[in-house]
Amino acid sequence: MKLKTKILSVLALLIAGFVYYYVSLPAVNIHSVDFWYFIIFGIAVVTVIYAVRKRISPSEVKQSKMMKLMIGLIGAVVVVFLVGSLLSSPIINAKKYQKLLNVEEGKFTKDIEELSFDQIPILDKDSAKLLGNRKMGSMVDMVSQYEVDEIYSQINYNNRPVRVSPLRYANTIKWFTNWKTGIPAYIKIDMASQTTELVKLDEGMKYSTSEHLNRNIYRHLRFRYPTYIFDELSFEIDEEGIPYWVCPVKKYNIGLFGGETIGRVVLCNAITGETKDYKIDEVPQWIDHAYSADLLIRLYDYYGALKHGYFNSILGQKDCLKTTTGYNYLAIDDDVWVYTGVTSVSGDQSNVGFVLMNQRTMETKFYPVEGATEESAQSSAEGQVQNLKYRATFPLLLNISGEPTYFIALKDDAGLVKKYAMVNVQKYQLVAIGDTVSACEEQYHQLLVSNGVKEETKDTREVKELTGKITKIAQSVVEGNSHYYIMLEGSEDIFDVAVNEFIGIIRYNVGDELHIEYKEGEELHTVVNIN
To answer: How far apart are CA 39 and CA 298, in angstroms?
Structure first.
């Protein structure tokens, strides 16, 4: 009977331990805080079971050697945990924390090229969610079973700024009825053109955050890599549009729990569950999110605040810098960079510069451009349309005519983008507002010229002439203005005629002879006179 009781007790202990592990999924790693909790929980459960079996009352604990041993063991583990936490903290290791991130000084106009209108990401994450949900609502065959996940990772896809997010099961019942086929699609949104696409897959995704049991992505990773401590997962697609989970593995460089960076990246195919393990410096080029934005910002805050030690960062605060209250993303050279401003810890309303941090390589560049904080720029933009009560999104830093410029979308109460603003970083009283990106930029250029920031550029292109019969003619509307694109006999060039400047062009048809004067461009030649 005693043997049976012991066996049942051991089985109960093993089952309790398995359930705890299956639900909480701690990494079997001394650097994992959850693993220490697991150890303390396990010893506590054994202690309680022993006390119940031996019928030891609270008053009898001191007389039991085994109880004192187990309680002492719990105390020892807790002490080691607390001491390890202290020895890993910035209080003792300020210099090591400050050196976790290597920061170089960059050149703004060299590193950040000017973007054309169709490359500027005009949507933030909240706007992307609205478009994604609207697209999902139009899919009658899916909307009752699935909804769009909240992830919306921003990536570079074929040199375009794109946000992608998988679908997820609407609830547990919908999972139960659809788990065999998996999740059939993901949402892809072009952040510049606002084109929203629901990409249907030939085979459904079997591994996601909304899966249950062993196909849940976190449980799938834990069972394959029991010792890995994973950072924030991101959803991405490769060049062929195949969905993957990008799973960064934390590396602790200081003591037990301190100096967190990324040491490896696990790629998990969201359809098959197949995984590949890479060292951080060997990850494929198409991956954009090895380092989370929050981790990079935390590392830069260590770099900026701990130059003269921990206590200086709290008391004297000499030369202490910190990042501002938000961040955004820039696409540069097929990588995604986190952008945020840098200001003093005293909390004034100006930035001493800004920083760009590569989410794939951790490369970090500081730009000593003094100017307004992002919050000040948002207030300036909102002040221009205060009668409309539009809300400004967090700015995107752009290079406009060689000037560091905050680009801001202005939304109404429904979250829809209504106007755009450009605010000069160094002279934030220069604010341009427009209904379109091009109109906003045109007004911004005029402000730069009229305020002496830039000299007006003269068009020095030579005026050329050509006479011939029209072989092709097409009409288009560009930023609300009608244009005719024509081709003339004997020439392969395309000529752009603005209807508002040359209304007579509407009288001409294919076969009519036309004499034009024009200036050459890269793709289109601009007509300056017709007769």
So the answer is: 29
Query: In this structure, are residues 507 and 451 in contact, taking their beta carbons and an 8 Å threshold?
Result: no
What residues pair up with 372 in beta bridges, in sequence order? 350
CA distances from 360 to 102, 246, 338, 357 (A): 14, 11, 10, 9
What is the identity of the amino acid at 91?
A: I
Instruction: Indicate the burial class of 101 (C-beta count within 10 angstroms; 0-12, 13-18, 19 or more).
Output: buried
Dump pLDDT digits (tens) for 268-324: 999 999 999 999 999 999 999 999 999 999 999 999 999 988 998 888 888 889 998
Helix/strand/coil (H, E, C) string of 198-254? EEEEEEEECCECCCCHHHEHHHHHHHHCCCCCECCCEEEECCCCCEEEEEEEEEEEE
Q: How far apart are CA 392 and CA 409, in angstroms?
A: 6
pLDDT digits (tens, 9 = 90+) for 409-437: 999 888 888 899 999 998 888 999 988 88
Tokens 């890995």 map to which residue? 228
Q: How many residues does the chain have?
A: 531
State the average pLDDT over residues 332-350.
Answer: 84
Structure-token match 């992505």, residue found: 217
* Cα–Cα distance, 171 to 495 (Å, whole number): 56
Query: What is the C-alpha to C-alpha distance for residues 381 and 376, in angstroms, rounded to an integer?
Result: 9
Token pair 């960076």: residue = 261
Are the beta carbons of 273 and 290 closer than 8 angstroms?
Answer: no
Using CA atoms, how far apart are residues 292 and 250, in angstroms rounded to an integer? Answer: 11
CA–CA dist 27, 21 (Å, integer): 9
Phi, psi of 268 (to 5 degrees): -120, 120
CA atoms within 13 A on the CB side of 324: 27
Q: Residue type at 196?
A: T
**83, 99 Cβ separation under 8 angstroms:** no
CA count, 13 A, side-chain hemisphere, 28: 9
Positive or negative, the Cα torsion across 298, 299, 300, 305? positive
Distance, in Å, from the CA atom of 223 to the CA atom of 158, rounded to the nearest integer, reads 34
> What's the DSSP call for residue 444?
H
Tell me 467's DSSP state.
Answer: E
**Tokens of residue 287, six digits:** 């991956």
Q: Are the C-beta atoms of residues 404 and 371 closer than 8 Å to each other?
A: yes
| % helix, strand, coil for the chain, step of 5 | 30, 35, 35
Residue closest to 406 by CA, chosen among 388, 389, 382, 435 = 382
Q: Provide the 10 A C-beta neighbour count for residue 110.
A: 8
CB-CB contact of 357 with 291 (8 Å): yes
Task: Please calculate the CA angle 276-277-278 and round it to the nearest 5 degrees.
Answer: 120
Beta strands at 234-237 and 243-254: parallel, antiparallel or unpaired: antiparallel
Residue 437: count other Cβ atoms within 10 Å of its Cβ: 20
pLDDT in tens, 159-211: 888 999 999 998 889 988 888 899 999 999 998 888 899 999 999 999 999 99
